[in-house]
# Entry
Amino acid sequence: MAAGCSNSKDKAPAPIPYLDPALPVDQRVSDLLGRMTLAEKVGQMTQADRAAVTRDPSMIASVGLGAVLSTPALVPTDDTPADWANLVDGLQSRALTTRLRIPLLYGTDSVHGDNNLIGATVFPHNIAMGATRDPELVREAARVTATETRATGPQWVFAPCLCVSRDLRWGRTYESFGEDPKLVIQMETILEGLQGDGAEDLADPTRVLATAKHFAGDGDTTHGTSTTLAYKVDQGVTVTDRAHFDQVDLAPYVTAVGKYHVGSIMPSYSSVDWTEDGVGNPVRMSANKELLTDILKKKLGFDGFLISDLMAIQQLPGDYAAQVRASVNAGIDMFMEPGNAPRFARTLLDEVRAGRVPVARVDDAVSRILKAKFELGLFEHPFTNRGNIGTVGSPEHRALARRAVAESQVLLKNDGATLPLRSSQRLYVAGVNANDLGNQAGGWTATWQGTTGDTIPGTTILRGIQQHAANVTYSADASAPTGGHDVGVVVIGETPYAEGLGDVGNGHTLNLSDADRANIDTVCGAISICVVLDVAGRPQIVTDELAKTDAFVMSWLPGSEGAGVADTLFGDRPYTGRLPVTWPRAESQEPINIGDRNYDPLFPYDYGLTTARR
# Structure
């Protein structure tokens, strides 16, 4: 053989196309799809929860699971960053033993920071971020959330909520940026913070796949239409005409898809009942082919994948086979069936083999899921990049959260320039919410419903006040003597809740608690200058109490960094926040929204007083 020549047998084999990162994603998807059996395809459409795969780890390979999720109750035993990464990597190693070595997606609820991880930076909830009117801040906060989440394993978050909240009685009000679709759209920079600027950024260790939810109309349902448990608003029916739906409920998704190319979307539990054809025939979103396929995928051009909400398809009519068939044919691509994954896969297989679900529909679903996995770089780097694990809850991240808290504060009353306070003033602070991290963080913090008490590391509002003033008396129930104080600060508000369990009429009300009213009466009646801070996920009815105060501030649910509340209270930062929702005079005014006829709220949408730095 001539010098310099080589035998063809010595050439390295050509890489398998789907494993070749040099090829375009669509070619890799097509190649891999062509190698898959029907059972492997159905497996990719199936998501189980961590509890199920912990009980039966062989399920990952036997079903060929496409994804695993952690609900807030399903966290590692020690709930540390390293434990999270070890958990995800352990499951991933099992996925890589399958014939085609298709990696898992791992999803978690990072709705205001990586809130399932104890020690993560917990930001104010979305309603407070809407009050900032600061899209760049929202983008930065989302980047921190993505960084802390990805560094600890999960590559996919079930956030953000792009609902337009039209009724404060809804228990998910605080998950919305506000009642005006234009404001929600303005704050969709959150998607860029999570995902980056285009699919090419998704593999970055500071990015995650985002989920826009809940498509569509979940913030616009009619009170009393829910049929889930004792819920009143959540998972109810959006009774609407198509013009209103397009303008209010659909509009944020047009931007999410067209401008930000969101990677996944979660259909709502709720239903839509078009008024054009007569009220009384609502269709649940999980089976709404018109909206999921014809509008979202075809008209809007959504090329990501649809993930069902937790067991949402089981609310559809008929037996389980009918539920699976209806939801797949409507356009859902992946199914969150936490303890039911093997049954789902078997049922879908039977439906396809019987010809009731087209193979083409399955291929479309799996192609969308694989596209996300390739774009996330999971085939090249399936295990957790832990390079940023040291940033979880870091001083820099907490400083950003503190700034977000300060920018979110909405000053609603300030007679006689009461605020900002002076550090030299003698302060009397009352109210449980002044010194309760769990209450100030709200729901979706460590647990689904949230928990009162010191559940997460952070700084309470009281501690923030004490950092600014040396002479502070604290009495949760205002039972300590009030004499000798210059200013009373009463911290009122809600205790944690989430979803329909927080609906007004389901054990909740917009009215203040008896304890909060008593604290206002005691402190504001005894001390000449009285400030009230409301720590809640939505406006409360304060019409009668407002006159008793010199200054009133809506502090929302600030998360882990309560010192941000004190930063504006003492003038380190100015008050600049504006209401993202209308503040009613009475609970009976709900629903009340900007643009309504006979609009007469206590405080209108977009209201907020300003101050200068001290």
